[in-house]
Each structure stands twice: as C-alpha cells, then as structure tokens.
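Q: Got a minute? One more chain.
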Amino acid sequence: MSKHRKASASAAITELFQRNPDLAAENPRLHPAAIDGDMLARAAASMAPALQSAFQRAPTEHEEQVALFQWAEANEGEHEELKLLFAVPNGGYRPMATAAQLKAEGVRAGVPDVCLPVARGRFHSLWIEMKRKPNTTSDAQRAWLDALRRYGHCAVVCWSANEAINSIISYLEQE
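A: Always. Here it is, folded:
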C-alpha cells in the first residue's frame, strides 16, 4: 500500500473515531494509534463500505425529482399518460416581489410537488409530495394531501425517485 493511501485511510479512520467516540471504546484495537502498516490497510479495507456510505452525500429532493422526470420521459412510449406528468414549482427561494406576485396569481403553500392528472380506479388523479429524510411534511402539505384524498384523488408522499416511480406504476396499473 502506498504512503498516500495509508495516510488517507488513516485520516478517514481517525475522522470516523472522532465523529463516533464510542466506536473507539468498543473497538480499542482498531483505534488509529494502535494500528500500523498492514493492519491499517486491513482495517481500512474491512471498513471501506461503512466509510464510503458515511461520507457519501445523499441525493437532494431536487435531484430525486429530476431523476423521476427523466424516468417519465424515457417511459412515455410504454405509458403515454406520463406525457401529462408535471411539477408544481411551489418550493425554493424567490425574491419577495416574485413571491408576492405568485401568491397574487394563486400559488398556495403545501401543494404537492408532482401531479399526474389521469384518472385510474376510483381516483381522479395522482399527486406526489417528494421528500428526503430527515425532512417531514409541513402542516400545509399534510392539509393539502388530506384534502386531495377527501375529494377523490390519490395523494402520496415519496422519499425517493424509485418510490415515486413505483407509486406511478402501481397507480397506472389500476383498472
């Protein structure tokens, strides 16, 4: 193992122990001070999956929604209804003047992020609120979801693009 790889593995392990002091108490022989050379390499290799997931950035809600719409566009041939899938651009930062204009035009807080205005089964349409953990739905979002359900729409919260895709497929397969 090169000096650079040993140093970077050592730094990663040191950072892991600094973030999780209980880990050092539970595994004293893995503490960086107790590891040298080949032992460091083996420890780093065995911890690589955990280290990778610990330092890997989770996709944002925006990235998940972009992935959903990329999937929808790629699958319009199989499900023509996907051509009607649209986003409701309610969230995000806006200058106060723009926010005031949009409010005057009828933008409402809490409206779900995505809509598929196609009737299936007993539902008039499908509405999806996209979320990323640890975020949760706001009071306004929950009120919208409840109201949509009360008036005959399918309204769901999805925590990833895959969950939204599965929800859409299940929705479209209803008779």
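A: The chain has a mean pLDDT of 84.
Q: Perfect, thanks.
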